[in-house]
Amino acid sequence: xxxxxxxxxxxxxxxxxxxxxxxxxxxxxxxxxxxxxxxxxxxxxxxxxxxxxxxxxxxxxxxxxxxxxxxxxxxxxxxxxxxxxxxxxxxxxxxxxxxxxxxxxxxxxxxxxxxxxxxxxxxxxxxxxxxxxxx
Length: 135
Known about the structure:
Elements: H1 25-28, H2 37-49, E1 55-56, H3 60-67, H4 71-83, E2 87-90, E3 93-96, H5 101-116, H6 123-129
Antiparallel strand pairs: 1-3, 2-3
Helix pairs in contact: 2-4
């Protein structure tokens, strides 16, 4: 039997306080606004099939079949979810991450700080400011 270990043990999801199968912070903290439709589909699938630690071993081929998407679309959806810190992925393991308050607030704070700068900035400076480094 294969033992599963969380990729991000400090971000194991917990049951939200409000009555909902999905955490309201997904909407309230604007995470959902950053997702493509395909990424939202993948997130819903992973939330549904994940165990109590948010872990899932569904193979990419199976996910593609169930969500009617090709591998390129799945990869883009997965990258979107990883970049918004909603999931962690280390092949073949997916982990749905906890929507800690610091994640949403941190993103909103960084975005607001960039938006309020009066002087034009280069893309490299913007990426550096949000923690992404030069791309």
